[in-house]
């Protein structure tokens, strides 16, 4: 991790003995107490800590729920009701876990958009950014498999529709897609075998996710945090110790987040779900409108945008394959942002042209989410196609071109100057005074 000096000094004889042999306390103190943090971080930076809380909460509640859940086609739906009605505080634990999935994705989307706006993907943070995209992919896989576990109508048919997408690979290599689908199902149709497989993976992947999060934090503490100005730390007055400054701000942000979290858990726990998922799965009755959870809707809209004709371009038998490729590419392309953006300036605060394209991109993602919840017909498909085009243009055209033609605003000479104004070479005492207040 980063090579700053730690002020940790064990006070007891046992502490000194242990520190000489396994300096865990020194490492934790150096990385989470003394660690130099840019003094100008705003509340958007609290979502890193919020995401850590969400991950721990999901694992703890998930382990408890797994003790009472039955991963079988005949027992899954009833076991959910058993947890909610008969297990002590089961209703709260289940609501916390279900709502927690949505809160987890809500926080990670804000975290990613913040990174895109402030250029947190730029050198030397490329590996940090790629690990973040890997985390999102693991979250999506875990969330999709978790959505199947209640074994309601939307769970069953959602699995049927999404897993069937791999059959599009038959267009390239005959039989490949069908083989993958049958392997995922564990047979020739979605059944209890499929549910058991997805339950096993849903239980396993969060621990894999925890390992990648550890690498993500390691990479963060090697290269240091970005900040709203996008300027590296240049002088001691540019930073403050992580504790108590950053941790206090994180605590306030987490408390505000928990108020929203608790409101959903205790007052509207089923608001973010779909009504059809409270009806037991029936392979003979197809819901009129199959939709995934809200956090998958933008990618679902991109998938459905590829019909037999895409903005007047005939796709024919390749429509389904193109939709599947575009859906996965919509996530993977985010990982290439460090190499697609040609600007030398990180923060969009100092990039007048890119800033407006970014806000249009944010609107595009929200619009795709709305369109994903609507039937794949008429004007909804047309608008989904238009927004899909802009989604990919943002990464493949706007990022490279705007970085070359844009004239950025003048950057402050240091973080201290951006906070206090005036000269960035303030006397040490003058810079330290605001930090002690």
Automatic annotation (TrEMBL):
Record's cofactor remark: Binds 2 heme groups non-covalently.
Domain of life: Bacteria
Principal subcellular localization: membrane
GO CC terms in record: respiratory chain complex III
Cytochrome b/b6 N-terminal region profile domain residues: 14-229
SUPFAM superfamilies: a domain/subunit of cytochrome bc1 complex (Ubiquinol-cytochrome c reductase), Transmembrane di-heme cytochromes
Gene Ontology molecular function: any one: quinol-cytochrome-c reductase activity
Subunit structure, as described in the record: The main subunits of complex b-c1 are: cytochrome b, cytochrome c1 and the Rieske protein.
Name of this chain's protein: Cytochrome b
Species of provenance: Hyphomicrobium denitrificans (strain ATCC 51888 / DSM 1869 / NCIMB 11706 / TK 0415)
């Amino acid at each position: 991790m980063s090579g700053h000096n730690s002020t940790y000094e064990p006070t007891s004889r046992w502490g000194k003995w242990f520190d000489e042999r396994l300096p865990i306390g020194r490492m934790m103190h150096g990385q989470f107490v003394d660690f130099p943090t840019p003094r100008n971080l705003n509340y958007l930076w609290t979502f890193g800590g919020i995401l850590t809380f969400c991950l721990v909460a999901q694992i703890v509640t998930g382990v408890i729920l797994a003790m009472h859940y039955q991963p079988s086609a005949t027992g899954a739906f009833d076991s959910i009701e058993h947890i909610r009605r008969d297990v002590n505080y089961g209703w709260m634990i289940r609501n916390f876990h279900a709502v927690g999935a949505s809160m987890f994705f809500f926080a990670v989307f804000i975290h990613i958009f913040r990174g895109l706006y402030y250029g947190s993907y730029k050198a030397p943070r490329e590996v940090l950014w790629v690990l973040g995209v890997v985390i999102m992919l693991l979250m999506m896989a875990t969330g999709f498999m978790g959505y199947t576990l209640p074994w309601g109508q939307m769970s069953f048919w959602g699995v049927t529709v999404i897993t069937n997408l791999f059959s599009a690979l038959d267009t390239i290599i005959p039989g490949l897609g069908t083989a993958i689908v049958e392997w995922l199902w564990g047979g020739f149709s979605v059944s209890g075998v499929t549910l058991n497989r997805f339950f096993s993976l849903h239980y396993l992947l969060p621990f894999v996710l925890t390992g990648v999060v550890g690498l993500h934090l390691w990479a963060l503490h090697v290269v240091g945090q970005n900040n709203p100005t996008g300027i590296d730390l240049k002088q001691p007055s540019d930073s403050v110790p992580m504790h108590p400054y950053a941790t206090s701000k994180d605590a306030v942000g987490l408390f505000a987040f928990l108020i929203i979290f608790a409101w959903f858990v205790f007052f509207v726990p089923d608001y973010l779900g779909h009504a059809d998922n409270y009806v037991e799965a029936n392979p003979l009755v197809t819901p009129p409108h199959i939709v995934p959870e809200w956090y998958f809707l933008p990618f679902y809209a991109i998938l459905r945008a590829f019909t037999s004709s895409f903005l007047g371009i005939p796709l024919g038998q390749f429509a389904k394959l193109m939709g599947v490729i575009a859906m996965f590419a919509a996530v993977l392309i985010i990982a290439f942002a460090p190499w697609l953006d040609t600007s030398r300036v990180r923060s969009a605060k100092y990039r007048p042209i890119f800033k407006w394209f970014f806000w249009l991109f944010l609107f595009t993602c929200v619009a795709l989410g709305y369109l994903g919840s609507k039937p794949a017909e008429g004007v909804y498909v047309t608008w989904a196609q238009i927004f899909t085009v802009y989604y990919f243009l943002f990464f493949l055209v706007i990022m490279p071109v705007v970085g070359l033609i844009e004239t950025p605003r003048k950057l402050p000479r240091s973080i201290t100057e951006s906070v206090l104004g005036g000269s960035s070479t303030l006397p040490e005492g003058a810079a330290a005074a605001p930090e002690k207040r």
